Amino acid sequence: MQLQYNSKSTAVKRLMREAKELSEPTDEYSAHPLEDNLFEWHFTIRGPQASEYDGGIYHGRILLPTEYPMKPPNIILLTPNGRWETNKKICLSISSHHPETWQPSWSIRTALLALIAFMPTNGRGSLGALEYTPEERSSLAKKSHTWACDSCGQISDLLANNKAKPMTKEESELINSVTFKGEDSEKVSKPSDQQKQEVQSNAINEEPVINNITPNFFKDALCSDIGMYLIYLIIALISILVARRFYSA
């Protein structure tokens, strides 16, 4: 593998190191590069516990850019799961669909941990998301054990009993933000009865909701006033110049 790539390349050195770190599969995930392509990895993850994916085993591909780790990877699920479409690049904050949120310090392991955390969250119509029922997803989780990859073989054999190493502080913060985002999405899609009553009350009383006025609103208003003053000032100056020319004539 070393003969095929420039060992001085940042991406190659980084991927070589990550391949060594992930060489031993765990009970939660496993990942490795293809023998003939360091920039394509295959991974296997176990479905998160206490969810409709509990007990499921899911396999996929990670396509890494030559600018890695400065740019994020593409992630593709191959095993039917009911959360994302298969054989399609999925939209995540850790994937190439959102390069603005990617951090170069994140790794393939970080992406796998975030992917596991993302599974139980609400897809809300994002690219590649599926809206299967919990029963359908549980059924797919059971069937996933029989799924096999043409390159890697039976995916149920790709995970081990070894415990994954503890998450770093940065990884924990990422996972917490992923979980929090999912909870927020659920709240937005299903407002409480109290929230509905407040909205109806505001609509009936026709009172402005001051809390909804953001600092940008005031900033825009201020900029608008300044613009009007400038226009008035320019008009006044033009009027003075015209008047002076008229009287001087």
Automatic annotation (TrEMBL):
<feature type="domain" description="UBC core">
    <location>
        <begin position="10"/>
        <end position="173"/>
    </location>
</feature>
<keyword id="KW-0812">Transmembrane</keyword>
<feature type="transmembrane region" description="Helical">
    <location>
        <begin position="226"/>
        <end position="247"/>
    </location>
</feature>
<dbReference type="InterPro" id="IPR000608">
    <property type="entry name" value="UBC"/>
</dbReference>
<keyword id="KW-0472">Membrane</keyword>
<dbReference type="InterPro" id="IPR016135">
    <property type="entry name" value="UBQ-conjugating_enzyme/RWD"/>
</dbReference>
<feature type="compositionally biased region" description="Basic and acidic residues">
    <location>
        <begin position="182"/>
        <end position="196"/>
    </location>
</feature>
<dbReference type="Pfam" id="PF00179">
    <property type="entry name" value="UQ_con"/>
</dbReference>
<dbReference type="InterPro" id="IPR050113">
    <property type="entry name" value="Ub_conjugating_enzyme"/>
</dbReference>
<feature type="region of interest" description="Disordered">
    <location>
        <begin position="182"/>
        <end position="201"/>
    </location>
</feature>
<keyword id="KW-1133">Transmembrane helix</keyword>
<protein>
    <recommendedName>
        <fullName>UBC core domain-containing protein</fullName>
    </recommendedName>
</protein>
